[in-house]
Amino acid sequence: MSTIRFTIGSDLKDAALVGQSVHAVCRHMGLSDDVIYGVELCVVEGVTNAIKHAYKFGTGHEVSITLSVTSGQVEVEIVDYGLPMPEDRVNALRQGSTVLDFDENDRANLPEGGMGLQIMHLTMDQVDYLTDGVVNRLHMVKHITPQPETT
Amino acid sequence: MQFNETTVGNILVTRVLDKRIAEAVSSELKTTLVGHFQNQHGVVVLDLSEVSFIDSSGLGALVAVLKSLQGGDLVLCGLGGAVANMFKLTRMDKVFRIFQTADEAISTLSA
User: Fold this and answer.
1) Residues B47-94: pLDDT tens digits?
2) Which has the closest alpha carbon to A13: A79, A66, A59?
3) B101 within domain boundaries
4) Cα three-residue angle A12-A42-B63, rounded to 5 degrees
5) CB contact under 8 A, A110 and B63
6) Position B33 pLDDT exceeds 70
7) pLDDT digits (tens, 9 = 90+) for A72-128
8) Nearest alpha-carbon partner for A121 in A151, A99, A145
9) Does a structural domain hold residue B109?
10) A90 in helix, strand or coil?
11) Once rounded to an integer, what is the mean pLDDT over residues A142-148?
């Protein structure tokens, strides 16, 4: 298993940096484009949520991201120490929501927000969120088909 | 954000030069595009061929622009890789008119 941990301050510019870093690590590990895109997207969504909702865009707070890759799965844990995610959002993350079940012809009611949790729910094979009120952990797993070894 | 803009008739082609559209720039993208429509551009073709990543806030900004239109249209072109996947995953590929290239968009919209 290969594991790498990133720690950033709660700055949106660093969310992009983490996304690009995760992308590079997954590319180095020989993962498929679909897995790389999906994992990068979910990491950026999770880190952005931590900065936006847990820390309310306040800077200087810690967000840590741990990425582990084995032959069978990619595992991501995003930890923050801000406000815990409300229960309805946790339920949407775990069970999915109807935010993307829109009528494409009903322009006025298209969703402008709230899509990030559903994107994580749809993209990853396991998504969970745990908090003790101090430490918040977003845990995501993506199953992968073992890739041929690269030289 | 950085853009490269060209006008063909009443069509404004706006090519996004940034590689990533995410929370940090989504508000600026929305403001820029809404401004184009307020400046009487009938149709804006947003060329995303240089963009390799878009997140839900970037997508939300484009939806917000689409919903704000009082006429005219916002169409997209140049979606590849992760960007195309994102539109398909969220079903937004059914909402926006999407062309392969800016030339194809201009040709179709000018006809």
Assistant:
1) 999 999 999 999 999 999 999 998 889 999 999 999 999 999 999 999
2) A59
3) no
4) 75
5) yes
6) yes
7) 999 999 999 999 999 999 999 999 999 999 999 999 999 999 999 999 999 999 999
8) A99
9) no
10) helix
11) 80
Which two structure tokens, joined as six digits, stand for A63? 């967000």
How far apart (Å, rounded) are the C-alpha atoms in residues A149 and B63?
Answer: 41
| Token pair in block for residue B111 | 């006809």
Distance CA A117, CA B5 (A): 34
Which CATH superfamily groups domain A2-143? Histidine kinase-like ATPase, C-terminal domain (3.30.565.10)
What residues of A are in contact with residue B55 (Cβ under 8 Å)? 41, 44-45, 48, 116
Q: Which residues of A64-90 are buried (b: 16+ CB within 10 A; e: fewer)?
A: bbbbebeeeebbbbbbbebebbeeebb
CA distance A62 to chain B (A): 18
For residue B20, what are the domain limits? 1-43+55-76+84-90
Q: Which of A41, A102, A104 sits opposite B55 (nearest CB)?
A: A41
- What's the ipTM? 0.92
Report the DSSP pairing between strands B11-16 and B43-47.
parallel
Asked if B72 and B40 count as a contact pair (C-beta separation under 8 A), the reply is no
- Return the CATH number at B31: 3.30.750.24
- CA dist., res. B49 & res. B65, Å (int): 19
Number of domains in chain B: 1
Contact A44 B67 (CB under 8 A): no
Determine, for residues B85 and A102 on separate chains, whether the beta-carbon distance falls below 8 Å.
no
CA distance B104 to A49: 37
Per the listing, tokens 């409300």 go with: A86
The C-alpha atoms of residue B25 and residue B14 are separated, in whole angstroms, by: 16
Helix (H, G, I), strand (E, B), or coil: what is residue B35?
helix
